[in-house]
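Dear colleague,

Following up on Tuesday's group meeting, I ran the structure prediction for the two-component complex that the binding team flagged. I've pasted the input sequences exactly as they went in, so you can double-check that nothing got truncated or mislabelled along the way. The structure tokens for the whole assembly follow below. Feel free to forward this to whoever is handling the docking comparison.

Inputs:
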Amino acid sequence: MFPEINNFLDINPSSLPNGKCIVVKQCGTDGSFLLHHLLSLYGHGNCNACLVGVAQTFNHYKSVSDKVGASLNKWKESGKFAFIDALKEIGQITIESTSDTSIGDVVDTLDVSYLKRLYFVIKSAIQQLSKQGDASTVLVMIDDLTMLLHVGIPVLSVIHFVQYLRQLVCPTHNSSGCLTVLVHQDLAVDDDDLNILVRQLCHSSDMILHVSGLESGFCRDVHGKLTVTWRESAEKEHPSGWNKQQEKTMEMQFKIMDKNVCLFAPGTSAAVL
Amino acid sequence: MAGPATSFKKVTRLKAPLIPGTKPSLHNNQLLVSTGVPSFDNTLGGGLAIGTVLLIEEDVYGSYSKLMLKFYLAEAVLSKHSMLVASADIDPRQLTKELPGPIVVDPGVEATISGPGDNDMKIAWRYQNMPQVQSSPSGVQFGHYYDMTRQMSEDLLQATDITYFHPEVQDCHCRSSPSGCHGKMRPSYARLLKAVKSHIERGNFSTDAQSQQRNVLRIGVHSLGSPQWGEEEVGSYDPSLCQFLFALRATLRSSYATAIITMPTHLFQDTAFTKRVEHVCDTVVRLDSFVGSDKEKNPAFKEYHGLFQVMKLPRLNALTCHELDTYDLAFKLRRKKFTIEKLHLPPELADSTGRSQEDDAVAPCSRTTNTNKLDF
């Protein structure tokens, strides 16, 4: 858990971002530190979490969590944390679908059917968690949604999948779940499908965390820029009136260290001052 | 008081199985193997992590990328790793036949140093009976230099477990319609994937497999995604290549294996497709040789043969990836050495300045004694 990010995002273990859909958008640099942050945040709060690993393995998350001081293993043993190894599953499905023997198998295709299955796996995992843990707050996290697109699942299905998950986890702002997804977008190229996915996700999200590299290029002391956009919807503020949609944006630069993340206002890195 | 049970016990740490030619990373404790180019290992943070896929985006003529693949495979021969060589463009047997020979340090020199007679210690005699320090406990050096003028000896090649893979050409063109195999991978990729999978199972390279003698599998794929593999630009985007890479990555994650794949990404029309491929791989580097370009004659580049671009470094078991001083790298090829070097020094902007502050430095053109015409 990185206290500086907590301050910046205005969240802490006592006021978790529940009822929110958070999109972590990484452009040109790695935004996974935010995922680790949110995970450890929910871990410290002793809440439930379900992590779908499409890009990374459980061992990776375990090692990082040990480093930042929130043991994922203990969390998992207490029955409040579930890991769904989508990386392995998709890999297996790809291999099985290539072999000639399993042509008649309907389940084993990388298609909408897989997302359906994944949805039900997540759903049952959440139900299992809420049975074990007393708290009803749950964090559902998908570590790289773009991978699903890359392995050939149609973009519309991925968008529907996220919509379904949202209905499951945080249908209203008062619900006690939080959905976090990571997407990777390269701004230098026009990838139509990816653009559609990112635009749709950002549209339906409550908080966008945009992680990007510096425009001026690589720097050892400033790893990138974190822009947060709060999309407060009108109904939350004023249930009756026509309150205009508020969109608040703040920007910080960051440096990732071995066990911590430093945030500072643009241009105020320790190396410059 | 001298009870037999004591809580003081010598802590014997459970050692990870030592595999020849590997070393644990200092950064994240990941097991590493050498790429065969020591300066490339340094760029990657010590070496290529086991269980990851490295993508080399080929230079236009593909000669340097092929050379790097050969170094990687030659390293397998010296470390007695198992290997799987795949290529559609050339015969994979040809690739191993052309492996460069290693430059070995003259064994005679070592023998004289470690001779027992003249090695009696006069002062630090207590250390005399200590075992000789061995830098690599497995007995195999990590990373070698290769002589491009020599060839790998036949005996060493014979002793290595090599599997070849060559996709049959007729299969690549059997598809009648490009969109007919929706959700199905292109047969050439599918066959390679199956070959990798079965090889891992057969050779006990999986992390689940219990075996006494562990070894590492090195997978080298030459020119994946070239037209010979059946890759072609069709109107709609074909996910076969990404599917293959993703499945390969998923398979390698749970096995003692690494893969280096060279790919002619300059053949792809759509840069978005290249970006997707890069995103699916763990480590991505790009070779940009000067051959045939204007840069060949540029005096700034005269020492080098091409630019070496690091597109992506993996984040494994850590928040950060290996930090490079600079991403301005270039490669050069000598007869006995292929090296990757810094092209420029990075600007001095670090937290602590490397040089001492020169306060008494005199500004140019402003010396007190007017000895130069330009001074004022």
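Chain A has one domain: 3-264.

Cheers,
M.
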